[in-house]
């Protein structure tokens, strides 16, 4: 199991090396930490999926002494490892560049967004193909642009405002509730993925 | 004798293809050659043996163990070679080893490097630059470096030049010296089997036709040549398949002795090759289909 | 131990091995107690399957030319003199029977045949 997670990191070593400096540049440019967190985590995680989509790689993984349960679980755990890695990097970056400690609420926000994404994207990718998720994202992005340009030109401001309001809530119980929901959701997603993958014909 | 692989009444249907009631076993300490044409169920059978597919009915047991309970234990003891590149193409052979090495309890680095040297494989070049032959050698290296008791190889000699094919057979002979290892390999280059296979397992159209000691094949089967006039409704039943020419017929019998008794000196009997057996079995089944439509 | 096998021969390969080892035992080229290579070694040397050499060794064992010790390998048996004599006698009998048959076919009587045998026997020495 540990070997599978290690494999995830080995495979993404080069991507990580490119991403790190880029992440610092983004931070330096003063782009919001939340935005950076999300746009770095999600491609990284989906990349680890698409590397292994070739059927021959599935042949390899399943022929090695692993169970299918472990193969799926390592993808989830790997995704969380990547997320924590990005979160840590952002925190350190903020500390170095601005000398400030990143708000824990911001980190939690990133974590929850990514976990929410994983919860839907992973079972979907196991059932179909990860490239469909990417396509779906591209379409969403285009829609988003259209909406901004045609209908609600201040959508960006509204979103930012929304996030700001959410972050300004001081209710710890609320955060705990959100976190719990996300964790439960992730857990069900994980179980669902195992189910899907166990039945998959290689 | 101990069986390393056992299939009992295995049925599997998918993608419009069906394995029907396949039962056979693979003996410990021997090499079993697995033959059959394209698309007759060889890869499916290998996938069932590797637990990449699960049977609809029937049982597969490896080392006497069941995959449901002992999946990891079984796979620890298997070395596998597929007829396609199963490695991450963006990695080098060395990086690939780093991924596979910690997985196996009995990984032997010295052995790994000895094969790398013997096969003249570059350690630090990306696997995507490897030729088909080199990929096969890399696969063999991985499969042979963890003292696997059972080697399962799907077309390991495809893409290899004749010189290396011969060398590979030498390597396999070396592996077999202590009598503890078992090799199961599929191939359509049946000439390779003459030199190494102890048993032949033959499947056709999703059915298991036979598993025999290599030498009994030439005791049971024979190519029969004679004049077409000898053939009639009754005598034709004697054969697995028949090819008729202007100047005579050629057929395959699965009962050499009986055929000899029936035809006596009027026909010539010859030793069949495995290819002959595959060819006539195919012909015979076609004939059977024709006569029923 | 020299063994040469032919892939084109009509004789099965295990038979070829059997015949050649047997001959070497009978002619004392392989002496009693001599160790034979293991089946797996021999298979490797000859580039043939293990089951083929196994079959040849089993036949040799059955006919008493070699014996096996578990974990040690196969050895040439002590050739039983009486057995050899008996076997030879049988061969002589068969050959003489053939001669008699042929004689009868062309009408050679027993005294004439005896004479011929005596003459040939003396000549050969």
TrEMBL record, chain A:
<keyword id="KW-1133">Transmembrane helix</keyword>
<dbReference type="InterPro" id="IPR025699">
    <property type="entry name" value="ABC2_memb-like"/>
</dbReference>
<dbReference type="Pfam" id="PF13346">
    <property type="entry name" value="ABC2_membrane_5"/>
</dbReference>
<feature type="transmembrane region" description="Helical">
    <location>
        <begin position="76"/>
        <end position="98"/>
    </location>
</feature>
<feature type="transmembrane region" description="Helical">
    <location>
        <begin position="107"/>
        <end position="126"/>
    </location>
</feature>
<protein>
    <submittedName>
        <fullName>ABC transporter permease</fullName>
    </submittedName>
</protein>
<keyword id="KW-0812">Transmembrane</keyword>
<feature type="transmembrane region" description="Helical">
    <location>
        <begin position="132"/>
        <end position="152"/>
    </location>
</feature>
<feature type="transmembrane region" description="Helical">
    <location>
        <begin position="173"/>
        <end position="197"/>
    </location>
</feature>
<feature type="transmembrane region" description="Helical">
    <location>
        <begin position="20"/>
        <end position="46"/>
    </location>
</feature>
<keyword id="KW-0472">Membrane</keyword>
From TrEMBL, chain B:
<keyword id="KW-0547">Nucleotide-binding</keyword>
<dbReference type="InterPro" id="IPR003439">
    <property type="entry name" value="ABC_transporter-like_ATP-bd"/>
</dbReference>
<keyword id="KW-0813">Transport</keyword>
<dbReference type="Pfam" id="PF00005">
    <property type="entry name" value="ABC_tran"/>
</dbReference>
<dbReference type="InterPro" id="IPR051782">
    <property type="entry name" value="ABC_Transporter_VariousFunc"/>
</dbReference>
<dbReference type="InterPro" id="IPR027417">
    <property type="entry name" value="P-loop_NTPase"/>
</dbReference>
<dbReference type="InterPro" id="IPR003593">
    <property type="entry name" value="AAA+_ATPase"/>
</dbReference>
<dbReference type="GO" id="GO:0005524">
    <property type="term" value="F:ATP binding"/>
</dbReference>
<keyword id="KW-0067">ATP-binding</keyword>
<dbReference type="GO" id="GO:0016887">
    <property type="term" value="F:ATP hydrolysis activity"/>
</dbReference>
<feature type="domain" description="ABC transporter">
    <location>
        <begin position="5"/>
        <end position="230"/>
    </location>
</feature>
<protein>
    <submittedName>
        <fullName>Sodium ABC transporter ATP-binding protein</fullName>
    </submittedName>
</protein>
UniProtKB/TrEMBL annotation, chain C:
<keyword id="KW-0804">Transcription</keyword>
<dbReference type="InterPro" id="IPR036390">
    <property type="entry name" value="WH_DNA-bd_sf"/>
</dbReference>
<dbReference type="InterPro" id="IPR000524">
    <property type="entry name" value="Tscrpt_reg_HTH_GntR"/>
</dbReference>
<keyword id="KW-0238">DNA-binding</keyword>
<dbReference type="GO" id="GO:0003700">
    <property type="term" value="F:DNA-binding transcription factor activity"/>
</dbReference>
<dbReference type="Pfam" id="PF00392">
    <property type="entry name" value="GntR"/>
</dbReference>
<dbReference type="GO" id="GO:0003677">
    <property type="term" value="F:DNA binding"/>
</dbReference>
<protein>
    <submittedName>
        <fullName>GntR family transcriptional regulator</fullName>
    </submittedName>
</protein>
<feature type="domain" description="HTH gntR-type">
    <location>
        <begin position="11"/>
        <end position="79"/>
    </location>
</feature>
<dbReference type="InterPro" id="IPR036388">
    <property type="entry name" value="WH-like_DNA-bd_sf"/>
</dbReference>
<keyword id="KW-0805">Transcription regulation</keyword>
